[in-house]
Amino acid sequence: MKVNKLTPNFEVKNIRKTVEFYQSFLGFSLVMVVSETQDGIEQSFADDKEYVYALVNKDNVEMMFQRTESFKRDVVFAKELPLSASVSFYMEVDGIDGFYEQIKNKGLNPTELKTAWYGMREFYLKDNNGYILGFAEKKDE
């Protein structure tokens, strides 16, 4: 088996609000959405529709968001699990100091930016669904 890429699929309460969070605070772009009728793929939100799925990306990172009812129906192992989990989604970035200041200025209450024992400058924050996102940059030697 060859693994080509990893794209996490997050169970979320509201697709539109989640995409807005990732666009506004983290600079992700909407790739596609699927409405409740699941009759096609759209590249933008329509005001008169509700959505069950979205795909966003930024640089080399993609993330999928799937509304709770749809997620629990499709991923049966999640049926009895609460929203969010004890896992963090760790992203390596360039320019962490400036990005950290932007996040703090937006009122997202990140952890302290620090250098970890394994040599990465990093911080964590929670998204609007409670998922833990980690951001890190290799420390200059």
Structure overview:
- With 141 residues, the protein is α+β, with helices and mostly antiparallel strands.
- 21% of the residues lie in helices and 35% in strands.
- The chain contains three helices and nine strands.
- The longest helix is centred in the N-terminal third of the chain and has 12 residues.
Q: Briefly, what is this?
A:
The chain is an alpha+beta fold and 141 residues long. It contains three helices and nine strands, in the order βαββββαβαβββ.
Topology readout:
Blueprint: E1 9-12, H1 15-26, E2 29-35, E3 41-42, E4 51-58, E5 61-67, H2 68-74, E6 88-92, H3 96-105, E7 114-115, E8 120-126, E9 132-138
Parallel strand pairs: 1-5, 6-9
Antiparallel strand pairs: 2-3, 2-4, 4-5, 7-8, 8-9
Strand order of the largest sheet: 1-5-4-2-3
Main β-sheet, in a few words? Answer: 5 strands, mixed
| Terminal residue distance | 36 Å
Which structural class do the helices and strands define? Answer: alpha+beta
What do the pLDDT scores average to? 93
By oligomeric state, this entry counts as single chain
Radius of gyration: 16 Å
Shape: globular
Please give the share of residues in helix: 10-25%
Uncertain regions spanning at least 5 consecutive residues: none
Q: How many β-strand stretches?
A: 9
Can you count the helices? 3
The share of residues in extended strands comes to: 25-35%
What is the H-and-E element order? EHEEEEHEHEEE
